Amino acid sequence: MDGNQSFGNLINGSKPVVVDFFAEWCGPCKMMPPILKELKDMVGDNATIIKIDVDKNPNVATAYNIQGVPTIMIFKNGKVMYRQSGVVQAKQLKMAVDQM
């Protein structure tokens, strides 16, 4: 099974999946882990949060046209419901998850 297939399975559920596309060398990306932890504390089991390293998963990054990192996307039922490039605050992400 390739990376795209497992990623595809993950984002096809009815639960929102918050995806942080990042790179190890990206300074602003280092600001996202505590924000994502704060989001997880707020949403609990209502959403899944995953990180995708664009350098280790170039096929996924290309498939979703990720040109800058961090890029945050929220999927539900396999569809992109939200997309924002740059550092996004937990409250903003929670509002997006709550609307799904």
UniProtKB/TrEMBL annotation:
* Keyword Phosphoprotein carried by entry: no
Instruction: State the InterPro entries in the record.
Output: Thioredoxin (IPR005746), Thioredoxin-like_sf (IPR036249), Thioredoxin_CS (IPR017937), Thioredoxin_domain (IPR013766)
Organismal lineage: Bacteria, Pseudomonadati, Bacteroidota, Chitinophagia, Chitinophagales
Q: Which Pfam families match?
A: Thioredoxin
Q: Which UniProt keywords apply?
A: Disulfide bond, Electron transport, Redox-active center, Transport
Q: Which PANTHER family match?
A: GEO12009P1 (PTHR45663)
- Family (UniProt): Belongs to the thioredoxin family.
Q: What protein name does the entry list?
A: Thioredoxin
Q: What is the organism of origin for this protein? A: Pinibacter soli
**Sequence ranges assigned to domain Thioredoxin in this UniProt record:** 1-100
